[in-house]
Design a protein that fits this description.
54 residues, mainly beta, Ribosomal Protein L24e, Chain: T, two-stranded antiparallel sheet, 1 helix, 22% strand, binds zinc ion, Metallothionein, metal-thiolate cluster, metal ion binding, metal-binding, Metalthion_fam14_prok
């Protein structure tokens, strides 16, 4: 059995892929960072290069 360990961040405009072990889990979805998990309420991006979410 192969476990899925990598997931794309659940934030729609985020392109980051995170391993489930490192991801922030929120409402059964996995996010690359707290800013994405919060839905960017503070207008803060995730800060990763090439990623325009936030
Ligand atoms: Zn990102
Ligand atoms: Zn993200
Ligand atoms: Zn995001």
């Amino acid at each position: 059995m192969i476990a899925v360990t990598m997931m794309k961040c659940a934030c729609e405009s985020c392109k980051c892929v995170v391993s489930i072990a490192d991801a922030i889990k929120e409402n059964d979805q996995y996010y690359c960072c707290q800013a994405c998990a919060n839905g960017h309420v503070k207008g803060k991006g995730c800060g990763h290069n090439d990623c325009r979410c936030g």
